[in-house]
Amino acid sequence: AVDASDRVAVARYGENRGYFDVTLEASGAEAAIESSILVTRPGGVVVQIGMGKSPLNFPVAQMLVKEISWKGSFRFIDEFDVAVKWLEKGIIDPRPILSGNYAYHDIEAALKAASDKTQHSKVLVQFS
Predict the structure, then answer these.
(1) How far is CA 101 from CA 7, 25, 85, 91, in A?
(2) What's this model's pTM, rounded to 2 decimal places?
(3) Which H or E run contains 82?
(4) Over the range 76-95, which residues count as b (16 or more CB within 10 Å of their CB) and which as e?
(5) Where are the domains of the chain?
(6) The domain 7-72 belongs to what CATH superfamily?
(7) How confident is the model at residue 9 (pLDDT cuts 50, 70, 90)?
């Protein structure tokens, strides 16, 4: 794995027009997308997993010059339905990953806590 913010590593893997045959970009951040192009070999593939904020600026010229294929990958298709069924049937127990529990009238606090990964991993909002 190469951290896109580690400019030394990006430069090292970007030498000689790139190192990796396939690069998975999972953040969606413009700097990381640019780095993924730099570290991918000519004729390689970048798989875009991270969605980031729209609109995004893509380094199209670099992609064309290196003839890089760009593939999109969406991480959820049937997983949500399967997860709900498993929860209903008791196949999985979500309690070990819950780090916060909020009443529905505290929904704003729950959403703020859930967005701060230094506070919580997953929060539960109870409606009863």
Answers:
(1) 40, 33, 22, 21
(2) 0.59
(3) helix 79-89
(4) eeeeeeeeeeeeeeeeeeee
(5) 7-72, 79-126
(6) NAD(P)-binding Rossmann-like Domain (3.40.50.720)
(7) confident
